[in-house]
């Protein structure tokens, strides 16, 4: 806990929260525009399922980039000030530092996801969606988004800590955003190889085109469990390999 | 006196070459140990291995008579350090940087303020460190190392980037630490003049190999003076003196003798006068430590 609180203390003056909120506002605005357009073309689309499917899809574009920026800012300060030797010579262990950075990034990204969920709930209520707020679907959306973000954080942190030049990790974030946005266009087997595709892959609602009409289908919880389990295993592996590799680097 | 740091055949290999080879360094309690060597000699690598920041290829380090690996936390809790360039968070103020270290070390507020006062940064503590000059960053690094007033202080080239007044100030500070706070100080530098004035013990490393270790007096004792004599005819004088069994070399306008006693000098003078060679000057040339250092390391240009 002490190291996590120090990690959060070190983020002072970085304006990281402001940056996250601004980025989130852009994403929410985009979501609302896309949803409003869909509703105006077909008022029957004014459903929570449609809103959740759009949010998951837009998350695929925005969250990998936002995660890359957030993680990069958390890791970059150690490179810039050459502070690893300062921290490690005060008896902090590299593994602890790595974990504290991971938890800090995770806290921020989970807060972003929660804020997002609340804002879309408010949007749905303000647009007089017929059904009541489907809390269970929102909880499932939050779990899917958070789980995917946690894996993306592990991957981004590895790159951000291992490579001083943060252009690499930011580029990776942009590539992730592109893959996340277009993931549904890939064949299922190819799609499953990319961690960024799970923003939509673990969404409780999926889109399907039938008779030139979009349908929003609620997925079975059980159908997502194998993918979630696999993702957790992959995430743990990425974290462990990253932590091990960074710990072996010479100062 | 207790041994605070000891390394046993400490080595660090990079590929096929050794950065540090079989270094046996020994620092006693209350010492100000000057660790000298030209740039790239292996000073920082050795210090990093002592602090556990770099893994030795072979050899062992003990600090406070304890093996490092199994007593890491204890050793580091009693050690303050500044390695190479100062480490800092540029987006935080000087005080906030100190707070980070304070939280890590779990020391009271008064230590933060006292350490800042010692390095004369208390007036700049609310300024962002990215706006600090190099000298101020260096002072902040020293303050961070001092924050817990540790038993052992390891400073790697702490006066880098400081102006002459700052160097003098830091020198006085380091000199006072063993007495004021009971600290043992290990300080590295490539400048002998800097170490000469504060160190009680000196270690000289060159090309990764420790080539001298001992008291500063022992180092100074290596400076036996040479006698330089200028005559009216150095070529003839050289020949005459060689014939009399003296060992000398001709150097520019002088004849240079090593290790002559006063009687020898009188004898040389008498020989020259008897041979009708005018003796113009007899000079005693004492080697300063800088010269000894250069002689020992065999490096002149890279210092």
Annotation keywords:
A: about 250 residues, mainly alpha, 10 helices, elongated, B: about 300 residues, five-stranded antiparallel sheet
Which secondary structure elements does this structure contain, and how are they paired or packed?
The complex is a heterodimer of chains A (251) and B (303).
Chain A: H1 2-10, H2 16-41, H3 48-80, H4 84-88, H5 94-126, H6 135-162, H7 166-182, H8 188-191, H9 198-201, E1 205-210, E2 213-218, H10 221-248
Antiparallel strand pairs in A: 1-2
Chain B: E1 3-14, E2 17-23, E3 26-28, E4 32-36, H1 43-50, E5 58-63, E6 66-67, H2 72-77, E7 79-82, H3 94-105, H4 109-118, H5 134-146, E8 152-156, H6 164-181, E9 184-189, H7 192-196, E10 201-206, E11 209-215, H8 216-220, E12 226-231, H9 234-243, E13 248-251, E14 254-258, H10 262-274, E15 279-285, H11 289-297
Parallel strand pairs in B: 4-9, 4-10, 7-8, 8-9
Antiparallel strand pairs in B: 1-2, 1-3, 1-5, 5-6, 10-11, 12-14, 12-15, 13-14
Outline the structure in words:
The complex is a heterodimer of chains A (251) and B (303). With 251 residues, chain A is mainly α. Chain A has ten helices and two strands. The mean pLDDT of chain A is 92. With 303 residues, chain B is of the alpha/beta class. Chain B folds into two domains: 3-214, Rossmann fold; 226-286. A six-stranded mixed β-sheet of chain B has the order 7-8-9-4-10-11, sandwiched between helices. In chain B, strands 1, 2, 3, 5 and 6 form a five-stranded antiparallel β-sheet that branches. The radius of gyration of chain B is 25 Å and the shape is elongated.
